[in-house]
Specification:
The protein has a 5-stranded parallel β-sheet with strand order 2-1-3-4-5, sandwiched between helices. The protein has a 5-stranded parallel β-sheet with strand order 7-8-11-6-12. Strands 9-10 form a two-stranded antiparallel sheet. The chain is of the alpha/beta class and about 475 residues long. It has 3 domains: about 100 residues, Response regulator (Rossmann fold), CATH 3.40.50; about 160 residues, P-loop containing nucleotide triphosphate hydrolases (Rossmann fold, 3-Layer(aba) Sandwich); about 60 residues, Arc Repressor Mutant, subunit A. The protein is elongated and about 95 Å long. The chain has 19 helices and 14 strands.
């Protein structure tokens, strides 16, 4: 944050000097006003980030200073300080827009903490806006928020490769933003006017994968009632993004390899080859090297796809990005739901930075959305966060105790697995694809778990829509 401008208002010289010295040592740009009249004049000629005003002063009191500050600059934060606290004055000050109410005598550490909390939303907002400006000017895209070294390296790679025709392999855990990377590459390239076509390979039935990718001619199989061009042709002149690439059947991988090498496809049931010009970007949340080793992904196809590898770090490895991501989501979601939310407390940011985020950025966005929708105030605090985030992670979280009689390990692991699958379905509201992401599984792997444990949602088959 740029150096915050603070106005200290008090008609006692000793209090003005005490606060002024403390604030300047903390790095703030401080202006002092000898009483309410001087403060009102200063507020009419300058804008301050924070006003700290005594309540009882001669001629013009702190409530009048508060009222003037909010009328002239609604975004200015006001802290009211007094030795004569009462319920009536507290309620009135809060109604007029005071951020906090501090009683004398106070400890300097306490007031430093209150000031930092009061200015935190503004700091995050400025940092977010500055980062957006930097990305617009230097990177040319705004789909990402991040200032960590790892993410800046990703931004730089996107900028360098955007205009090449090379295939790209994006890896990273679920929720890290792999499709956002693919879209950024497309929109930064000369292909931006062409289509960006995205498909989750894990959600396409195995028997329909070839037709989905390459198209088919009428009558080529039961149910083929019309010609279909397929996703490769739909992305001609643009970009085709294949998410969960390891879920493509081996039989189709051979044809995909040919399409990449020859830049031509053959629709199911057709005898002609069709030229296509689509830039291919693939992604996986699995270990692609292991997929090659176990035969899930053809080695020759992997090398064709992995010309330019991009790995997205999990959110727990880029904690410094959390404050600006939170500010971004607050700005975005509060507009969507029609609420006025100014920011988040420093305590809440600390909790968010301490959490391990198994669902990564998608989970963070969901947490902020929940806090905004269910919250009442204009600032998100710790009390608005889910209990799981606030609970300390003890050293014995995974303590193991084997009884003297022994244990049926396979049966125990099956029961644990079933509980996790049920919990994921519950958290995902029954959406199978989302539940699979929460568990780090592909859609086919997740369906196998459902069948293995004979799980259903009531009398209905679990939904697969996102």
């Amino acid at each position: 944050m740029s150096e915050a401008r603070v106005l200290v208002v008090d008609d006692e010289v000793s209090m003005r000097e005490l606060l002024s010295i403390m604030l300047r040592k903390s790095g703030y740009d401080v202006t002092v006003a000898d009483g309410g009249e001087a403060a009102v004049e200063l507020l009419r000629t300058a804008v301050f980030d924070l006003v700290i005003t005594d309540l009882r002063m001669r001629k013009i009191d702190g409530l009048a200073v508060l009222r003037t500050a909010k009328e002239l600059s609604p975004q200015t934060v006001v802290l009211v300080v007094t030795a004569y606290a009462s319920t009536e004055t507290t309620v009135e000050a809060i109604k007029l827009g005071a951020y906090d109410y501090i009683t004398k005598p106070f400890k300097l550490d306490e007031i430093r903490f209150r000031i930092a909390n009061a200015l935190e939303p503004k700091r995050l907002q400025e940092e977010n806006q500055a980062l957006r400006r930097q990305l617009r000017q230097e990177r040319g895209f705004e789909t990402f928020i991040g200032k960590s070294r790892k993410m800046l390296d990703v931004f730089d790679t996107i900028r360098k490769i955007a205009d090449s025709a090379s295939t790209v392999m994006i890896t990273g855990e679920s929720g890290t933003g792999k499709e956002l990377v693919a879209r950024a590459i497309h929109h930064e390239s000369a292909r931006r006017k062409g289509a960006f076509v995205s498909v989750n390979c894990g959600a396409v039935p195995e028997g329909l994968m070839e037709s989905e990718l390459f198209g088919h001619v009428k009558g080529s199989f039961t149910g083929a009632v019309a010609n279909t061009i397929g996703l490769f042709s739909a992305a001609d002149g643009g970009t085709l993004f294949l998410d969960e690439i390891t879920e493509i059947p081996q039989s189709v991988q051979v044809k995909l390899l040919r399409a990449i090498q020859e830049r031509e496809i053959r629709r199911v049931g057709d005898t002609r080859d069709l030229k296509v010009d689509a830039r291919l970007i693939a992604a996986s949340n699995r270990d692609v090297n292991r997929a090659v080793a176990d035969g899930t992904l053809r080695e020759d196809l992997f090398y064709r796809l992995n010309v330019i590898p991009i790995h997205l770090p999990p959110l727990r490895d880029r904690v410094e990005d959390i404050p600006v991501l939170v500010a971004h989501f607050i700005e975005k979601i509060s507009k969507e739901v029609g609420k006025t939310v100014k920011g988040v407390t420093a305590d809440a940011v600390t909790v968010l930075e301490r959490y391990h985020w198994p669902g990564n950025i998608r989970e963070l966005e969901n947490v902020i959305e929940r806090a905004i929708v269910l919250g009442n105030g204009d600032t998100l605090g710790v009390d608005g966060l889910p209990p799981d985030l606030c609970r300390p992670r003890g050293a014995n979280e995974f303590a193991i105790d084997i009884p003297a009689s022994g244990i049926d390990l396979e049966g125990h692991l099956d029961r644990v697995e079933q509980r996790y699958v049920e919990a994921a379905l519950d958290r995902a509201g029954g959406v199978q694809t989302r539940a699979a992401e929460l568990l780090g599984l592909s859609f086919r792997q997740f369906r196998y778990k459902l069948q293995k444990h004979s799980l259903r949602l009531g009398a209905k088959t679990p939904r697969t829509d996102a």
